[in-house]
Amino acid sequence: MDKVGQELFSERQRDEIIVPLRAGVVPRVGLEKFQVGRLEEMKSLRRDLDKVSQGGVCFRLVSGESGAGKTFLRQALSHQARQQGLVVASVDLNARRRFTGRGPGKNLYNEIVRSLSTRSRPDGLALTNIVERFIFSAIRSAHGQQCSPHEIIETRLKDFEELAGGFDFIEVIRSYWQGLETSNELLKKEALAWLQGKFSRLSEARKSLNVCSIINGQNYFDVIKMLAQFIRFAGYKGLLLNIDEITVITLLPAATRTKEYEQLLFIFNDLMQGSGEGLGLVLYATPPLMHDVKKGIPSHCALYGRLSPNPFVESGWEDFSAPVLSLAPLAADEIMQLFFKLRHIFSYGDELLYPLDDDGIHEFIDTYNLNQPDDQNTRAGVRLFLDYLAVREFNQTNSAQSLPQHQASNAEVF
Length: 414
Prior knowledge:
By secondary structure, the chain is α/β, with parallel strands linked by helices. It has three domains: 1-37 and 330-414, no CATH class; 52-123 and 234-326, Rossmann fold, CATH 3.40.50; 127-208, no CATH class. It has helices at residues 11-22, 39-53, 70-83, 102-114, 127-145, 149-157, 166-181, 185-195, 202-208, 220-233, 254-272, 288-291, 301-307, 332-346, 358-367, 378-394, 407-410, and strands spanning 57-63, 87-92, 239-244, 279-285, 324-326. A five-stranded parallel β-sheet has the order 2-3-4-1-5, sandwiched between helices. Helix 7 (166-181) packs antiparallel against helix 8 and helix 14 (332-346) packs parallel to helix 16 (378-394).
């Protein structure tokens, strides 16, 4: 048996990992306890995080079959980003939450802001903390420099004057500072409402704040870039955006689909040309997005020209630095190591409680062809394995020889 460590797990620690996995969901905690493979992929994405932390930008698209580990990679990357001091937002695309459209574009922005998370607030809703951290940081600097916090705040916000919508952004932060200074909760609430994109009419925003614009489906990306820079002024390293379910674009009507690809092209060009500071965008999709010549990215020549695969990769070489990162199936030995680790966690880290020996794991993998890359669905395989461990735990008198007769009834899982 490969080494899996000697760590013991409490019932809570064990259930925080096993229960979500049995439900087909990636746990929020404990990912490092059963992570296998994907070393080069994670190394490449960590380099992107380092780049963002230093004030740079990145644009990556992670492509993999359903159940191949995209969500796991996203969770692991988000955790790593928060540990490095970045703010993270993770959202899913759907028909009502897209890159373009008056309503869908704004809905995407709303969800991004709602899901902002930090190391101290990993579950989201961190916008208030970010704004107040910026202000309190200015207050501390003012005390050190023996000047008023207003001077420090104005100096730090001056950079936004050159950006699209920057004057309104500055005014909103001023309003929050004034509300904080005068204990005006309504003013603070209205300033946050503007940042959250909650105003649907400019007239309403003008009554509450001295602004000339509101966030909508056309200008939200400009605001995201300002947020990323503001986040750095607040003392964080930058902003990482994880956007999943990108393949939903292929299901949209042709005209809408084209607009989505045009917006993606604009965002890609904008970031690659140095517009933005401390901003990382990682998209997650299934292979049809990159392979469907009628509805996928290949149907948009300009965007495909930016994201097309490295031709040398087809010669058997690998490139983990390209904009598109394709997830290959886990190797047979990685699947084996994964199951060893899951068995260890399932048994609270106590080898005496293992419901299945090493030979039993080998037989399980062979029976369900989990070592065949072409047939591999890691998520489904993990669920089936944990279900089998649960059955073994409660039926310890049955032998592993009963496995083959269940193969046919479970084959459709894969």
